[in-house]
Structure formats: structure tokens, C-alpha cells
């Protein structure tokens, strides 16, 4: 015990001595040579070689100051107990200092005469970018970003890496972008992201309804949702109130994450305790009777700050654009971070979410009356196809997660993330089944009661070492995921109630009894489990101006299911033997890529990667499981970080081939079939820019040509106006439905400063989505559409100091209230969201 105390005291003395030496030295530099300092500071964009190992922060800053001849100032206690990150390589001084301060909770800013001051990293997401010599200051790779620009990420490599040094497309939706656009769910937040179509199945669900898995297309393929690096099936895991940032990794990401389609993955980072206090509350309001309250609080628990907490919470209630469909939610996300010592930290998080109404409208509307209106009145967006006294959809979600990190030394570090989830989902639905006549549809009653649990763990070792002039950042790890669920599905075949969509009269009475002589019903009770394990490795190599990534992964997956069923046909009851399936898959995936880093900010790159994902829980109409999806992609592009500006420009061209792509089985309703090979080719152009202190912009253009390749499948052309089918046509070479070929968007925010309008800001955006096709043989087109978004915000503290921290905001999406179909199949169309108005009042202190 005494020995440990002496060791700790000695370490404290060393850090105190280093801090004192640092302050003394920088003070002498300030007094003795200010002209030289100013000159060096002006030239701080010139790259030079650094080799500073991880050490007490005072020592590291002293070495940095000696190497750069820059004057650096700080408050002594601020440095005590903090350790720097190792910096080794060729960087500008501002880049090196950014890396040096990574993870310390500190950042830096320029002072008069070229000096640099070390300051706490602010937790206030509305602050403007901090620059040194015109270069953006340090950003946490899982944090909120600065303005509309994020310069580092963990998503692409599971290491803290500049986005410009990763040879594939990664796009970050920063916290500030979410604040300005006020998305109310993940699909809203992804609207301005290249390569992603977020509303294929409609935009009318205002709430955070349903998981994004399978509902969003990324480079033409279904996107999958990861939270803090682990796949999730929780429908509420992507509550935007609880997120720090959202990242779209476009292209195969199987080497790092395992089961991912070749289109990519959507990564989300949950809010965690901040290094500086954060206190924020807000109240919101909107159309369709929306009322919302949120809170976000973070502070120190201990005086030293080595134990910190954060609590985020939300309560919201509202209707939607569809009659009888409501959204209600209460949720809380508490977390604690414990810096056990300067090299070790542990973060614990929990979440509980109760969503009795998830705001989802589980059906579309007939194509006759939505897409085709020449001879029929247009069906109102508010039309509810269902039964108000029966249709319900909601869930309960609970989650626990921990993140543990330990630094052994520069060459080896340890990180582990674990999450447990429990989800219960209830869906009572009387939905559109078929057309009876124009304007009249038949309904079919269903009920689903699903409960599922998941345990997921990712464990990895990583570090840095040099072999001569070659620098290596390596990572090797293993992850597993165990997911099981029970699904009681009840189908009411007693009758198919008829509904006139122009004058609906709701008279449906569900009949699900297994013994009543008046019922005809089926009960399906699938029980499924899925286990996946993978091991992976990766080496990021830097040599002179080249950044190279090489990585590989071996996956093993096993899934099994048992589907017993029972039935009642007018009092005649029975059951069928359980249908049991079991499937084991394994695959090796790999990636390789190279980036050339020029001194003027241009980063051309090329990469090749493969993907693998088992078809979890999917079977054809015969109950047979599908083969795993396997894909490959070639990608080439340019990333340009404008020197001395917070502007990141990206362009990329890609060629993807996927085998065993699943499509709707038009013959066997509610089942899918193997379409064979699908090819996706195209390019993306994007810009994320903090152009000035007042102006921020995001913009992108996407071109995607997604077609069926080798396929023996055929389908009959459907003629909706006559409700008839034509001849069989081969799917080969046809466009994949729901995927637009062209998408364009731009969004900008401008805040007035130093004028009569100081504190007032306006923003707006334009979204264009090109036409899509309705089915696998291009029976008809779904028209393109333009949408407009606007907003405004006002900081009351700019005019009245007493009101500092109080901010009002208004956001309007689909300003013109355009009526449009975001996607259609043969008979149904999914309507996009009408004009949505949302405002809030936020107070920070």
C-alpha cells in the first residue's frame, strides 16, 4: 500500500515538474523572442517531422514547443494528470498538436502574435470552429465534429484516422448539422448524405419508427445500423436525441464489422460524458400536435473530474400526417465515465425507451389515386388504410453498454465494447391486401408480438510501431453477436373487409381465436437464433506521402429456426409439425487501398474490398434459407482538404457486384426470392464546408446505375390502370426498383454577426430525387421530385446578456407541401412526408 502511494506521489511530482518546466519555458520564449514566434506561427502550415511518444501532457507540450519554436500557454492545473497521445510522422504543427491533445479533453486556439493557448474542449456543440493558422483544431473521432466538418473518424478503420487517409467514402453528419436541420429520426438525418436513399418506403412516419435495417438503401443495397461499432436490432437505438454523430461508410465494410452488404453501413455514436460541464434543456412544438421536451446534462462527479456523468432524456407526443397514427415516446440514456488512471478508462451506459405509438403507418396506398390520378381523384395523404380500434404499433427497448480502454504503451493498447439489448415489439395491423375496384381495397388482419435479445462484444488490440521510415498503425480483434427472438404472428383469414379509400368506414372486428367456430385463423410462432463470430486484422501503413490499408477477416455464422403453427378453420383446429431450418456459413473477406497525400491537400485513392452477410431469418416460400450475400467493390476517388480552410471535398467512382440479391416474390406474397447478381455502378460528389465563421454548407450529387445482372428470373409486366398483367419478361438488365439514378441536395446555414441582425440565422436546403421503377421488370416509373427545406434560429444572448444561453429555432421540411410518392411496387405507393413544422426553445448554462 505504501509502495503504491509512493509510486503515485512520484508520478504526480514528475507531472507537476513537467508542467512547471513547460510553463517556465514557454514564458521565457514569450519574453525573449516574440518576433521569431510570430514568424513561425505564420508558417505553421508547413509540414515537418515529429516523434513524440505518449507521456505526461506537460512534457509532451514542452517537446512540441522546442521542435516548432511556437509559444504555447496554459493554466498549470489543466495539464495535471493528463497524458498525451503519441505523435510520429510528417505533419503540420497544428496537425501534430491536434493528435497530441487527442483524448485529453483539451484543445487549442490562436492568440495575438501567433501564440497558442491550451484550453478545455467545449461541450457546447454550437460553438464555431477553432483554428490555429487557419487549420481546424482537434476533433474527437466519435464526437460531434465542428460545424459541418469532421476531419477524423473511427468508423472506417476502428482507429483514430483522418478521413482523408482512408481509401473509401465516409460521410459524417455532425451534431451541428442535426441541430440545424432538426431531424426527428435517422431517415430524416440521412437526407443530405451522398449515396443514400432514405425514404424508399415513405416519409410519412414522423416518429423514430422502426429500425433502419432494411429500410434505407446505400449505393443500391440495404443499409445496416451499427451503434458504437456494434450491429443492433433495436428499433429505438437511433433516437437522434441520444446521438453525437452519424457516419455513412459507403462500400463494403465487412473486414471491420462482419455482416455488411456491399453498399456499406450506418454508424452512430451515442452521447457520453463530456470533459467540460454541459447543461441543456429544451421544449419543442410542431404541427400534427407535436410537443417535446429534452434534457442533456453532463458534469463532474469527483473534484478531479476523473468520474463524470451524463444523462440525456426525451419525452414526446404527437400525431402524424396519417389519421389515427400517433407517436409517443419517453426515453432516458444515462452514462458514467471513470478515468481509472491516466491510461485506463471505463464508460458505462444504459438506455430505456418506451414507445407506445411509434408513428409508423405500416402500409402504402393504391397506385391508382396516388401515382395515377388522370381518371381518379387523388387520395389524401391523411387517409388511413386500416382499423383505428385495432391498428397499434409500439415497442419497449432496454440496453446496457460498456466501453473499456487501456494503454499498455505506445506499441500496444486494448479496447473492448459490449452491449446487451432487449426489445419487445407489438404490431396489430389491418393492412392493404388487394384492389377490389378503383378506390376500393380489401384489408387483411395480422398481429405480431416479437421479443428479442442480443449480446454483442468487440475486443481489439491496437498500436503503432515503425520499421525504418515506414510507420504502422495496426489493429487485430475479435467480435461476436448472439441474437435470438420469438415471434407470435397471427393471421386473420375469417374475412377481408372492404374499404373505400375516399370515404372510409371502419368496421373491422378481428377474429384470432383458435377455438371459435366463427374464426378462420393461423398462428405462426417462429423461434430463431443467430450467432456470429469473426476475427480481423488490419495494418495502416504510412511511407512518405503514401497511406496504405491492408486488412482481412474470417467470419463464422450459424442460424437456426423452428416454426410451429396451429390453425382454426371454423371450429376445426389442428397444428402442423414445426418446420426447422439450420444453416452454417463462413467466409473470408479482405480489403486493400492506397492514398497519395499531397502537400497541398489533395488525396487521390483507390481501394478494393469484399463483403459477406448471411441472410438472417430469410427463407423462400418453401421455407428454404437463402445463400449468403457476397459482394465486391472497386472504388477510386479524390479527397481534397482545402489548405487553411475547414472545407472537405470528396468525389468517388465505384463498381459493385453482389451475388444472391433478394427481391420481392411477386407470385408468393410476403416472401422473397434470389435475384442472382446485381451490379451497382456510379459516382458521388460531396462537400462539407465551414466556409466562414458565419456560413456552413453541405452538398452532394449521386449517380447510381443499379441493375440485375446474371439472372434466370422472369416476371410479368403489371398494368395498374387495368389491374392486369402482360407477358413474362426477363429481369436481366432491368433497373432494381426503389433506387433513384440521380440525387442532388444542398443545405446551407448563415448566421449574422456584428450587425443589427447579430445572433439571427437562417438556413435552407434543396433535395432532388430522380425517378425510380415500380418492380423488377420496370412496369412503370415513379416520378422524380424536388423538395425544399428552410429554417431560422435566434440567439437571445446576442442582444440581451441576461438571456445568454437561450436560443429559439424553427425548421420546416417540404416547404411547398409537395405531394409525392417516394417509392411504389406493382399495386402500392408509399407517400412522402408533407410539410412538417418544428420549433424549439433551448437553454444552455
TrEMBL record:
Q: Where in the cell is it found?
A: Cell outer membrane
| Chief localisation class | membrane
Q: What PROSITE patterns does the record tag this protein with?
A: TONB_DEPENDENT_REC_3
Gene Ontology cellular component terms for the protein in this record: cell outer membrane
The signal peptide here is: 1-38
Kindly name one Pfam family recorded for this protein. STN
Q: How does it sit in the membrane?
A: Multi-pass membrane protein
The UniProt keywords, alphabetically, are:
Cell outer membrane, Ion transport, Iron, Iron transport, Membrane, Receptor, Signal, TonB box, Transmembrane, Transmembrane beta strand, Transport
Q: Which domain of life is it from?
A: Bacteria
Per the record, the GO terms for biological process are: siderophore transport
Domain (Secretin/TonB short N-terminal) ranges: 70-121
The record's listing under SMART domains reads: STN
GO molecular function, a single term: siderophore uptake transmembrane transporter activity
The protein's matches in PANTHER family, at most eight in alphabetical order, are given as:
FERRICHROME IRON RECEPTOR-RELATED, FERRICHROME OUTER MEMBRANE TRANSPORTER_PHAGE RECEPTOR
What protein family does this chain belong to?
A: Belongs to the TonB-dependent receptor family.
Listed name of the protein? TonB-dependent siderophore receptor
UniProt organism field: Gluconacetobacter dulcium
- Tell me the lineage of the source organism: Bacteria, Pseudomonadati, Pseudomonadota, Alphaproteobacteria, Acetobacterales
